[in-house]
Amino acid sequence: MRAPVDTFALRGLGLAALLTLAACGTTPQKPASSNVPMPSGGKVKAPVRQDPTLPALPAAGSGRGGYYKDDGPGDNPPPNLRDVPDAEVRNEPYSTRSNRPYVVFGKTYTPITGNEPFTQKGTGTWYGKKFHGQRTSSGEIYDMYKMTAAHPTLPIPSYARVTSIDSGEQVIVRINDRGPFHATRVIDVSYTAALKLGFLGKGSHQVVVERLLPADIDAILAARAAPKPAPLTPSVVAISIDTPVETGAVVQPEVTTQMLPVDATVAAPAPAALASGFYLQLGAYSRADNAETGRSRLAPYAAALGTLGVVQAGNLFRLYGGPFSSRAEAARAAANLPESTGIKPIVIQR
Predict the structure, then answer these.
(1) What is this structure's pTM?
(2) Cα–Cα nearest to 323, from 263, 281, 266
(3) Where are the alpha helices (DSSP H) in the chain?
């Protein structure tokens, strides 16, 4: 067994070299089983496309695509990778061995072991075939087709929400490895995570990394365990419309009742800042108009989500619902949001 520092150093050397070049996409072929190292030698075969939803890019080892040496996409990616769910969060003890301070390229990294919030912005990249089937810093086998990531200092194991500023997509990944060791690059995600974030072909995106604290994980688990209510429908109210009707020489008003949908966005304008309390983060967008579109889409569910507001934080426009009096109340509201919306709320405290 290699010493922990040696393991980190070797991982660092490989990742640092890997990240000197842009990682790229994949050429889908036949499904392959997970946790099996990809072959590294032999003649490079021409890419065969079987899944049109995946980018068709140069194969690993082809000398094209900007990969580091023989890294790049796998030869036989499994089907339906876009449907792979986010990492299944759970609170578990941190690894003692994987969270000791270590040195790579003369720089000391001290992993986080407390429960302080952590948010980081920078370049997100991905790593693939060269490390597929090998041991990560956690001791687990790296599977490029699962929702995992490497980070220099986040606890192992832990979970993070990664948002692509370019695409607006979000995923939750399990941190089980160390790297990347580069001044501007903040996280190295798996092949599948990069695919879902929208930067598999480009090789990198500007991202925001947000650590999920144990309390956040508890809220997510509570929301999943809560009974699923019937799908919500837009709220309606009965309003009276006075319609004058002539009866001889006297004009009498006739009162009729009509059901009209309530526009929740009118009742709850977006706040410039959030008051203290618990909120649901419902999305993060690189453009204000996209955030407003997201707010309009969720307007029919404002009765459950509370005031819907868009707040700018740096280059991101975050969509929030709330406030709620407690984390548990916010988690229940998250559980009331139909899965058909495609939204994965996260409870935050402001």
Answers:
(1) 0.58
(2) 281
(3) 4-18, 191-197, 214-225, 264-267, 288-298, 302-305, 327-335
